[in-house]
Specification:
The structure holds 2 protein chains of 2 kinds. Chain A folds into 2 domains: about 200 residues, no CATH class; about 50 residues. Helices cover about 75% and strands about 0% of the residues of chain A. By secondary structure, chain A is mainly alpha-helical. In chain A, helix 3 packs antiparallel against helix 4, helix 4 runs antiparallel to helix 9 and helix 10 packs across helix 11. Chain A contains 14 helices and no strands. Chain B has one domain. A two-stranded antiparallel ribbon of chain B has the order 1-4. In chain B, strands 2-3 form a two-stranded antiparallel sheet. Classes of the chains: A mainly alpha, B mainly alpha. Chains A and B meet through helix 5, helix 10 and helix 12 of A and helix 3, helix 4, helix 9 and helix 11 of B.
Chain lengths: ~325, ~300
Amino acid sequence: MSDFLDANAVLVQATFIGLVLALSVQVPLRMGVFSFAGAGSYGIGAYLAGIVTLRYETPGLLSVLIAAAVAAVVGLLLGLVIARLAGLYLAMATVAFDLIISVIAINGGDLTGGPTGLYGVITDFGTLQLIGVSIAVLVLVALSEVGRTRRRVDAVRDDPELAASVGISVRRYRLVAFAASGALGGAAGAMNILIRSTVTPMDIGFGLIVLALTMIIVGGARSWKGAVLGALIFTWLPEVLNAVGEWQPLIYGLIVALAAIFLPRGIHGLFVDAQRALQRRRRRAATSEVASVGDDDAPDTDSEVIETLKESSEVEATK
Amino acid sequence: MQELIGALSLASIYVLFALGMSLTWGTIDILNFAHGSIFMFSSFTAYLLLQRAPLPFLVMVLIGIVVGALLSLLIQVLAFEQILKRAKDKRSAEMQILIGGIGIAIVPLSIAQYYTKSTPFGFEGSPFEVTKLTFGNYWITNVQLMTIVLAAVLGVATSLWLRRSRQGLALRAIGVDSEVASIMGVDRRRLALGAMAVSGALAGLAGILLTYSLGAITPESGDTLLVKAFAAIILGGVGSTAGVYAGSFLLAAAETVVLTQTNGLWVDAVSFGLIFLVLLVRPSGLFGRKEVRRT
């Protein structure tokens, strides 16, 4: 394991940083907020961690915490301002936010190092801490995908009016999405600068949005598993794609476009569909053998409810 | 005054570029993120053909228009129609179109980057000469003049087409409620293709004119223009031709002021700041109609 880590340290680090960045765009998407603010938070986190480390020599973990906290507050403020905008308008406002952050980075003078950025940010923060923080973050995100929280998040995304009518504060969930996205993006940016020791305005531009989106769309937008898949694929794929050399961006673009057209729920969506098909077949087999409903997994989304209803009516019809 | 001429021709480029985006966004609900790539690749194709033969100005403009329209149609047929066919509701379709567009935009961009090595390309071999017309203390180049005139004429033409013709009425009907429109006998697919072709043609035209005007453009210039066009459209209000003009002129004027009064590094922040400000104060833009949505 440690041999593997040493040999592929750069790629392993990139995988985890990419994962946290992807989560920062995915969390709001799962709550129906089409926000790209995670990329801007990444910029805030990277510069903030660099500045506190260079000026006050804070320990690595503390820098990450500070960066995540400040980025979360900024994200929340942004959310308060733009949460009432709808769909594409909100998306464009967050793109504007991201680009403003990079313009500020270029014009920040001594504080941000201008166009050359910050360099020489060296701390005790290493690969193991990076993996630790990333996994902790991943667990927190995964916890929001089980039980009550998951059903509420699904409701807020798929039918906000319905959610509001059963007493879920849609606004509060959306604001939490903004804050969480800020914290995740901030942490990703902070960890990146602490590992790589430099950041330039070029690193926090529009390319980040494309990268995060690519990971989520190809991996799957509905679950943390999708983000993991996406981060793995798009960090290790360039190694595999070395043969195509300069055409790599073109391949990426095509993959994103094809995924958006044919696989809107990503690779993870394929797995979910396959699992459901399997369950259905098993259920059918079970109901034909013993004519009783013996499945214990409760249906919890609209489509599943409808499918179960259809199946039970089919069963009745065959009786 | 000289700055005003500069701002006017900059605004005219924004108008030509943003007009097509606003047309498709306001009517068939397609926010085409590949619009910048279409703009750049039309100019790039003309540049490649110019290496073979010294083509006159008019032919170059035609190449730009045709390539822009074809690319736009291709994207519509291969990507956006497929997404609309498969998407389960309007919101996820909107998102998939946006993301699909981001992906597609990379393809022409990386082809152009590969051949130009990301350096600027221009129309050096063209027999057409950019000349300065002076009157008194001021000057304007012939390309700038043409850009301004074309932006004015095409803008008015688009506006009239949308307002007066039956096709325009049908397009606007799709923008209000596409299902009701198709019940009324509107051929959605054909009109969408038409709107995309017009939009692409305008982008191609803007590409050729800007390349002549600046001397050279980089493969990445489409992306910058895309964000600026967003700013102009949002400033003016989505789907409004008058709004595109107002937004483009405001943006160009604000940028010119910042460029001449400061060291210029903040210019890019102007458009983003304006987007933000307008979305906060008046989300539907200066000329936008208020969106009524039933749920």
